[in-house]
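Quick log. Single chain, no ligands specified.
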Amino acid sequence: MQPSWASVGSMDAVRRETIGTEVADATHKRRTFRKFTYRGVDLEQLLDVSSEDFMQMVTCRARRKFKRGLKRKPMGLIKKLRIAKQNTPELEKPACVKTHLRSMIIVPEMIGSIVGVYNGKQFTQVEIKPDMVGYYLGEFSITYKPVRHGRPGMGATHSSRFIPLK
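-> predicted structure:
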């Protein structure tokens, strides 16, 4: 005869008392977090790395862009992100900085910031995480509405002609 679900929880509590709390906690699997690295460099070291060293870590397309120099608008975005981070109280997210620079490559200095990336219609808020380093801002703000196949609507079938369009 199988025990009911209510008795299983109480049996687990009895088992913990008999075995001991330290042994029972050891039997539960501990959750381990993955340590972030970018091309073999830890996050703390990545934040301290110089721009020339970071340039050697990124892909060749990004390296070419950095080698040709950051122009006025990308540098202005980085300055605005610095100011937004400085004006933020402890344990709060910084204010959103809006930009049209979809071709801006995410650098380690931008980690933790919130950027409003323009997608042609509106600004999509993107919180910069360590995994995003080396990608373009535009990759995180989709510019089109994905197709939803199989839904009734205009031109689907003759029966859908009476379904009102929103």
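The radius of gyration is 26 Å.
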